[in-house]
């Protein structure tokens, strides 16, 4: 099974691109959504979170998001500790999910892929890009948030310039029709890969 990591900065359009692959019949695993679910369902992970943040981390078995956010917001060390236990749980869950899929390749959408070296577990990577100002306006249009909050979240992510050299495919997502055409062409290319030796140039 070929694993294709899909990422992009806030508001770049990675979820939009993920939906395009899904429409083409490709299974899509959305790491951030699954991570949120696992924090409420994976008993080992729940115990690790309680060991880290104390019993206030859960209310009636459900993650106390406000409490956790209050701890990790602006505290990079605590955020790193949380990520260090959540990421392995997501990786385990993804491996099990992947085994059940029947397609030639699967897409793993993750907001953070290059920053945490998750891309090394992928056979190929796709980076969705758009100019920062467009991304800010998109998020302001989509979410109840402020320009300052969007910029602050943006500042926690790598710049596109750092990610571009590491990506196999770059999708500049401005004109949606052009994006759709490029997704179709990437899909054709990935569908023609040999799953036993997907990336011969790496050998
Ligand atoms: P986040 O990291 O915040 O989850 P994202 O990278 O997944 O964002 P999307 O949610 O796919 O981004 O897109 C952000 C917003 O921009 C959405 O409302 C989406 O409908 C819109 N959008 C995406 N691509 C385009 C485009 N090419 N033209 C216009 N609007 C777009």
CATH topology of the largest domain: Rossmann fold
Number of strands: 7
> N- to C-terminal separation?
17 Å
Biggest β-sheet strands, sense, barrel: 5 strands, parallel
Number of helical regions: 9
Q: How many separate domains?
A: 2
Radius of gyration: 18 Å
Overall mean pLDDT stands at 94
The order of strands across the largest sheet is 2-5-1-6-7
CATH architecture heading of the largest domain: 3-Layer(aba) Sandwich
List each distinct ligand once: adenosine-5'-triphosphate
The CATH superfamily of the largest domain is identified as: P-loop containing nucleotide triphosphate hydrolases
Gross morphology: globular
Low-confidence stretches: none
Residue share in helix: 40-55%
């Amino acid at each position: 099974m070929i694993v294709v990591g899909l990422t992009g900065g806030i508001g770049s359009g990675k979820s939009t691109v993920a939906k395009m692959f899904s429409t083409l019949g490709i299974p899509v695993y959305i790491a951030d959504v699954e991570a949120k679910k696992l924090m409420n369902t994976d008993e080992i992970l729940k115990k690790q979170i309680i060991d880290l943040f104390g019993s206030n981390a859960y209310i009636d078995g459900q993650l106390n998001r406000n409490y956790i956010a209050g701890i990790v917001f602006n505290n990079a060390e605590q955020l790193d500790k949380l990520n260090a236990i959540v990421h392995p749980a997501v990786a385990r869950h993804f491996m099990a999910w992947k085994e059940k899929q029947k397609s030639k390749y699967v897409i793993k959408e993750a907001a953070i892929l290059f920053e945490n070296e998750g891309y090394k577990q992928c056979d190929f990577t796709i980076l969705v890009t758009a100019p920062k100002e467009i991304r800010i306006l998109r998020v302001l249009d989509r979410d109840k948030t402020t320009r300052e909050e969007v910029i602050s979240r943006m500042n926690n992510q790598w710049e596109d310039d750092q990610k571009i050299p590491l990506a196999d495919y770059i999708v500049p997502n401005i004109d949606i029709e052009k994006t759709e055409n490029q997704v179709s062409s990437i899909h054709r290319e990935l569908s023609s890969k040999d799953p036993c030796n997907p990336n011969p140039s790496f050998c």
